[in-house]
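Researcher: I'm preparing a figure for a lab meeting and need a structural model of a single chain. I don't have an experimental structure, so a prediction will have to do for now. The sequence is pasted below. Please return the structure as tokens so I can convert it later.
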Amino acid sequence: MTTFANLKLRCASRFRDTLNVIYTADEWGEYLNEVYSLTMTQDPGLTYMENLSAVNFAAGDALATLPADTYQVNNAWNVTDGYALRPITNRAEFLEFYQPDAPSGSLGTPEFYRLVANSIELYPAPAVATEVRLEYIARQIALVSSGDSPIFPTQFHGLLVEGALARAYADDGNPEEAARHEQQFRQQLSELVTFLQRVKAGQNFEIPDSFFS
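Model: Understood. Here is the structure written out token by token.
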């Protein structure tokens, strides 16, 4: 995984200028986020993408915060105990399965989950530390923390560096280098869009039912 900190370092290490213009890490971050935002508008499949994340619950703790980029949770898997959690999606199920005033003896093996604001809540609350793997639709958010990473595939993260360098050289008055890096950015962006379209086509492929043939 390429982090925001890694991307800024790559930009700084590749930038060459005879006038000794130096960009700060914050300035590289602004360039990278500008290119990241532009990249995410190039294909509808980029704005919202499937993602995986581990969410950890301490023993006795039923609530945990969802990943910051969560748009929609598709599945939740109890990794610790090895099975899928059942979502509570309506009031009838809530009243049937969720009992917030149950005695402390209700701690056990989580079987259900519900989403509350920016949190996921398990029922019953786990008796032991529990890891839940979320399969969710991620939305693009700006890269802020050092450990943040773009949501599209890692092998294409270099296009953000090319785009950032193109803008840095343009601001520095070096149109030749700006054009060269812009060309690399556009080429890699095209490859990313093509890759995602192929992945999407593969996901939609239907295996014919031959049981009655």
